[in-house]
Fold:
Amino acid sequence: MDSNAPTDQREPVAVSLDHVTKLYRGGAGVHDLNLSIRVGEVFGFLGPNGAGKTTTIRLILDLIRPSSGTIQVFGLDSREDCVAIHRRIGYLPGDLALYERLSAREILSHFAHLRGGLAWSSVDKYVQTFDLDIDRPVRTLSKGNRQKVGLVAAMMGDPDFLVLDEPTSGLDPLVQLQVRTELRRAAKEGRTVLLSSHDLAEVGEMADRVGLIRAGRLIAIEEVAQLQQRSAHLVEVKFRTPQDVSEITALPGVTSHSLDGPILHLEVAGDINPVVALLAKRDLDDLSIREPTLEELFLKFYGATRD
Amino acid sequence: MREQKRSTWSWVTGVVAFCLVMLSIYPTIRGNHAFSKLIDAYPAPLKKLFNVTDYTTSVGYLRAEVFSFMAPLLISIFAVIVGSDLLGGEEERGTIDLLLANPISRRRVVVEKWLALLAGVGALCLTLEVTLGLVGPLFKLHLGWRPLSAEILGLGLFALFAGTTAMAFAAATGGRGIARGAAAAITVAMYLLATLAQLVSALQPVQWASLWYQTLGNDPLTTGFHYWHLAAVVLVVTALLVATVELFDRRDLAT
Structure:
């Protein structure tokens, strides 16, 4: 299924990549990327290390230039109009590097000035949200605090388009939660978010659509909601004693099963009731029924496309 | 620029210290006939190489000890280090990504960084001029402001050329190492061409190609400003800056 085109052709497009290829010596890079991200959408890039997520992001930001193809952001050419585009972008690089001898305050003031004189209040809002000590030199900050500086730099001024490469890397769980809250708020306000991550669970929670990149190619783009709807229930049953389960596994909805002593795992597509009815007749120690995580879905998909 | 401040201040201190040491020696040399005789006995090629003529006078002493080699070299080294670091350093450290994600063109980044180089070289030249001009007389070393300014302007322009060359290589390669090496090699080559051409007649027809010769070879300390020569160097520096801007604008930035 290709959910690449906007569902409504009149929906404004934030980013469009049209047959974008970037070739490096040795065959690495990205090949023939076609992608449209809608305004107000949260789009997640998923893929293993070296798949091309960061390359794609750096192409969009005009830090590197494509070998062929065109990239447009808000209808403007990514290279010719890069200054106009960057006025509307907040970027957090995957390998965040800051000016070590300066304080966060000095760095953020400088960037606020470059962005046309952002009011300090719009910076301070995020400084407070992330509880950042902005007067210490950056070289004295921990990795998590440096990441916070990067986040504030990206989010300050509430830019129309947030491009975040591994945004929660190095952050403790509470701060990760704050980041997710802020991104959800950004999306609610109609701003566009492009998120790149290894963390499938995190992307699954925040993204409207996800794109899977592998070896420089976009091999799937899926709406998260549809993915979850299509997927099967995962049932885990612990019987009091090992027993014959062939009656249960023979049910038409059971797409796969595995039995390990008294523990039975089932994948059930469609109606769960016949399975529950049969299980209710047995002596159970424990029972859980859940939806698969995005991780499980993608690993299944990724594993299937390996051949 | 704020990041460069600390290292520039140490260089300024170094220049002041160097000047003070040189000045403090002068009183013992000034008008010292025994010393004069010693210098006269030096082989002529050696004297030519180090610009030693009238060593015991103010002009001769400064020319030999400060301006023939040390001061131009020191300030050129500063310019090469700063020039390579301004662009190449940012790219090597990875801070260039975050900078360029802001609404600032690559061209503007290069020009602003070059202005920082200009300011740094200017600061050191001013230090040299003020220290020698104001403190010199305390050590009986008298030099007019005009000859001093002429010499230091030439020196400063040469250093600016060295630094801009380093920036150009950094813009082309994305790193400091090659930039420093190439700029240093070119600087030394220009110095050697200018100096050796005084001894080796075969080199004289191409002496003009050395920017060291163009800026300092006419002995501004004695002969004053040579505007056409300086203009030629300004032209070269401008061309290098334009090349730097273009090179940096076209290249993929390293991760």
